[in-house]
């Protein structure tokens, strides 16, 4: 069942979303060569504490990180650790927090240093654009897979693979709620969108094929062909006119 959020609930999710936006902004600035992903996790922890919020990820189904940090061929769910960022890397940072009983979730992918290849920058640009094309479809009266199709069509038109193994999701009182929001699908199908639905839309786009596999840590998903992957995400509210980005 897809829940419709009240105006008060939307405000609470938006409050959580502002904290997520703040964290991502700080981490984007801090992600320089030589910095470790654990350093980024510690910085996120400081901001979360100051904001009187809680990490949505730490301990979720046993996940050991406050945030997710996924480098290069890592798609999602990378665990912060001792790995130092190097010039030429691309880094996906995924942040989810809970405040006052409501959740928000957002992600971005950034180039590290000034030696990032043009092919990597193009992947990042296309993935971010795919997110916003999906968001444009998140309006009342459309179908859920209109979002999915917009993302898939744009990414595949650039020759990229659209990850099937992980999808977006509803969000609100819980980190993951109905419905699942795939980044692939047939236009004009899926549940009808209604004002008050809140969705975490998150294209995960691979430089090569769409297949992924999980590393031995049980969490980190990587591209099967070990080519690059990028990830962008916003929590958005469906409205009658245009989607409202809450993160």
Describe the structure.
The chain is α+β, with helices and mostly antiparallel strands and 247 residues long. The chain has a single domain (7-245), classed as Creatine Amidinohydrolase, CATH 3.90.230. 29% of the residues lie in helices and 25% in strands. The protein is built from 4 helices and 15 strands. The strands form 4 sheets. It has a 5-stranded antiparallel sheet. Strands 1, 2, 4 and 5 form a 4-stranded antiparallel sheet that branches. The radius of gyration is 17 Å and the shape is globular.
Keywords:
15 strands, Creatine Amidinohydrolase, 4-stranded antiparallel β-sheet, alpha+beta, 4 helices, 5-stranded antiparallel β-sheet, 247 residues, single chain
Side by side, the strands of the main sheet go: 8-7-9-14-15
- What is the CATH topology assignment? Creatine Amidinohydrolase
Inertia-based shape: globular
CATH architecture, please?
Alpha-Beta Complex
Number of domains: 1
CATH class descriptor: Alpha Beta
**Helix-strand sequence:** HHEEEEEHHEEEEEEEEEE
**Mean pLDDT metric:** 98
- Outline the low-pLDDT stretches: none
Relevant CATH superfamily? Creatinase/methionine aminopeptidase superfamily
Number of helices: 4
Q: State which percent range the strand residues make up.
A: 15-25%
Helix content: 25-40%
């Amino acid at each position: 069942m897809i829940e419709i959020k009240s105006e008060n609930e939307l405000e609470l999710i938006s409050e959580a979303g502002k904290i997520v936006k703040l964290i991502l902004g700080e981490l984007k600035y801090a992600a320089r060569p030589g910095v470790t992903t654990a350093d980024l996790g510690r910085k996120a922890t400081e901001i979360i504490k100051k904001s009187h919020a809680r990490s949505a990820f730490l301990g979720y189904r046993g996940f050991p990180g406050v945030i997710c940090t996924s480098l290069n061929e890592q798609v999602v769910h990378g665990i912060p650790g001792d790995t130092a960022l190097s010039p030429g890397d691309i880094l996906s940072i995924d942040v989810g927090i809970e405040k006052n009983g409501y959740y928000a979730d957002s992600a971005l992918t950034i180039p590290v240093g000034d030696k990032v290849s043009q092919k990597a920058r193009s992947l990042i640009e296309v993935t971010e654009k795919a997110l916003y094309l999906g968001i444009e479809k998140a309006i009342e009266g459309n179908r859920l897979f209109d979002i999915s199709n917009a993302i898939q069509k744009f990414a595949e038109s650039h020759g990229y693979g659209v990850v099937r193994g992980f999808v977006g999701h509803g969000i609100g009182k819980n980190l993951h709620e109905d419905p699942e929001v795939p980044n692939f699908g047939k236009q004009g199908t899926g549940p009808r969108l209604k004002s008050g639905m809140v969705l975490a839309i998150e294209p995960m786009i691979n430089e090569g094929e769409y297949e992924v596999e999980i590393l031995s840590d049980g969490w980190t998903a990587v591209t099967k062909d070990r080519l690059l992957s990028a990830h962008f995400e916003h929590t958005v509210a469906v409205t009658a006119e245009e989607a409202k980005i809450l993160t």
